[in-house]
Amino acid sequence: MSTFISEFLLGGSGKRVAIKDSIDIAGYPTRSGSRAFADAPAATKNAEVVDAILEAGWQIVGKTNLHELAFGVTGINDFTGTPINPQAPDRVPGGSSSGSASAVAAGLADIALGTDTGGSVRVPAACCGIAGLKPTYGRVSRVGAHPLESSLDCVGPFARTMDDLIAAMQVICPGFAVAGMPGEGTNVGFLDVDCDAHLQASLGAAADRAGWRRSHLQLSEFEAAFAAGLTVINFENWAAFGHLTGKGLIGADVETRLLAASRTSREELAEANAVRERFTRQVDAALEDFAVLLLPTLPTLPPTLSEARAGSKAVAGMTPLVRPFNLSGHPALTVPVELDCGGLKVGLQIVGRKGQDELVCAFGAQLQQSMAGERPAPKKS
User: Fold this and answer.
1) Terminus of the chain with fewer CB atoms < 10 Å: N or C?
2) C-alpha 374: how far from its chain's center?
3) What sign does the dihedral 174-175-181-182 (CA atoms) show?
4) Where does the Amidase domain start and stop, copy by copy (predicted)?
5) Four-residue CA torsion sign, 119, 253, 237, 97
6) Please, what is the end-to-end C-alpha distance for the chain in angstroms?
7) Helix or strand or coil: residue 323?
8) Element at 30 (helix H, strand E)
């Protein structure tokens, strides 16, 4: 089982950073976890986020593994190996940025960069019990990230602590300014979604301990946004990788998904983009009433490796709560919360207004501080 596709040291002596192998580093091939790119030449230029890391004096420690072509949610990869989930070795690490999450959770890196098209930072972060951010779409440069064209994908950081995640955003996101902590009793909207009851209860209790005043709400376009997001992913991934099918170059799971994606029509894409507009307006309207929206990152515990390989329905249920915010473009952060009944850490997702990544991170920092006992638990109103 491999967390890194290649290990090396590059740069200064600052924070240790791992880079997903769908992001270019000059002098190293970008293989995107696929046999199809086994003979890819070395990249000639760094991705812009890699230049930013090096200019900060931080140290790149290697390129991390991923679900092949970044087109999968489990992180299982039979070509390059499947990274271990450090908090639950019998469970999937999550995808597609599996190696990045695994490296941070195992302490092999302080920070890692991944990409998130339909949950591919937030899902593995939640699976592995760490923090992960999908920034506002377009706010962090994708120059040098693959696939080159995407209307959904974002480069985002992983870290064990919000301090490190915020430091990463200060480096890779021009103009990112640290925001102050939200005030006591700040109004937050807690989305009503399908989720395991014990998980929902633990996340609600964590929000209460942070001192926020939560109200429940529903977004009527939420499920439609989930479906529309897949339509867009399918259309764009077929355009990027369809030429690789039928040649024995990619794994069976990704080949099957790509062939299914080939049937996505321009009419379906137009309908998905209409949903995108409606859902975006709905989220924007909700965020006029609340500082942020909260919801679980995953609706259940991550499936076991054996369940995933057996084609369990649990795999299909890993992204319904994350993909809608790729479609809308809002910043979405997952922060680990320990279940009240003990056991694994699960993710609480914090969604904010576009361009207010700083505020989303401030909420994440407050949540993490409250769980560490750095402030007393407030009384429930």
Assistant:
1) C
2) 27
3) negative
4) 17-173, 249-361
5) positive
6) 48
7) helix
8) none
Catalytic residue among 20, 134, 345, 354: 20
120 part of the active site: yes
Do residues 367 and 336 make contact, with C-beta atoms less than 8 angstroms apart?
A: no
**Coil, helix or strand for 280?**
helix
Q: Is 15 a catalytic residue?
A: no
Is 328 considered catalytic here? no
CA–CA separation, 359 and 147 (whole Å): 29
3-state secondary structure of 307: helix
364 half-sphere exposure, CB direction, 13 A CA radius: 33
The closest alpha carbon to 4, from 317, 17, 12, belongs to 17
pLDDT tens for the chain, residues 1 to 381: 599 999 999 999 999 999 999 999 999 999 999 999 999 999 999 999 999 999 999 999 999 999 999 999 999 999 999 999 999 999 999 999 999 999 999 999 999 999 999 999 999 999 999 999 999 999 999 999 999 999 999 999 999 999 999 999 999 999 999 999 998 899 999 999 999 999 999 999 999 999 999 999 999 999 999 999 999 999 999 999 999 999 999 999 999 999 999 999 999 999 999 999 999 999 999 999 999 999 999 999 999 999 999 988 889 899 999 999 999 999 999 999 998 777 799 999 999 999 999 999 999 999 999 999 744 333 332
Of 22, 97, 100, 120, catalytic: 120
Side chain identity at 298, as an amino acid letter? L
Cα dihedral sign for 356, 359, 363, 364?
Answer: positive
CATH class of 4-371: alpha beta
From 96, 98, 150, 370, the catalytic residue: 96
Where do the domains of the chain lie? 4-371
- CA-CA distance, 59 to 55, in Å (whole number)? 10
Q: Which residues of 117-144 are buried (b: 16+ CB within 10 A; e: fewer)?
A: bbbbbbbbbbbbbbbbbbbbbebbbbeb
Contact between 17 and 9 under an 8 Å Cβ cutoff? The reply is no
- pTM of the predicted model as reported, rounded to 2 decimal places: 0.97
